[in-house]
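Table S2 (text version). Query chain:
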Amino acid sequence: MHCYSLPTKKELLLSSVIAFVGAGGKTTALYTLAMHHASNGKRCIITTTTHMQYPAAEFGPLYTDSSQVTFTNNKHICVCGLDCGEQNVTKSDGTLLSIHKMTGLPQEQFVQLYSLCDVLLVEADGARMLPLKVPASHEPVIPSGTTTVVVCAGLDSIGKPLSSVCFRSEYALSLLQQYAGWHTEDANRCVVPETVAQLLYYGYIAVLQKQKNREHTRIVALCNKADSYILKEQGQQCVDALHRLVAKHAAGSFGGSYITSLQKGESVYVQY
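Corresponding structure-token output:
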């Protein structure tokens, strides 16, 4: 897991930095939280350290230089990054989509964003629109000074073969072999709530908790797409399993879990 260079202490004090990692609705969750903060008068900047979807017209224009960022009484959200055009993405159902993407600003400009806003929201991971992910060694790209890391997973992965719903499924299978008794031939085994919990914990949370520069970073889990009664129940099972794993290993700062249906505007916080 890589980091952007640490900004100055003064810059850190001026903003709250929230990084979204994992899969299953990071961008929607990020914009939802930005709109919440903006409705309370907070100046929010949305950006990425990897790639993310180009902003909708209502959030434009895209600021390609940190010196251009401008807030007004009616505009509390600014999106910063570089246009990288259309990219083809294959969804878990095999559908090929062409998505307009943006990438992050150069590091020297990224660091300037800290002092320009009250809340800096960063998409720090990519998942090719799949609901689950286990990162490679160079991922995610979390900015130094991050105050909260939101680790996301999509509950719509449950009941489907791991290989079809998880980005870097080979890494996921390796973790599940190591910690959950899976076997090499289980690549097409169906995901259950406990699987989601295991990938959230061993893929992200346990790694983050061991990093020396994360002692004061709040880590929360977001189980998204609880868009039906059954998925809500499975979300609760996932959170219960995740909290058992956190308690078993008793390491680092974990701030609890959210079961959300961003589609319906619903969110339940489950305290650890």
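Notes on Table S2: The radius of gyration is 18 Å. Helices lie at 9-14, 26-39, 107-110, 162-165, 169-180, 193-210, 229-249.
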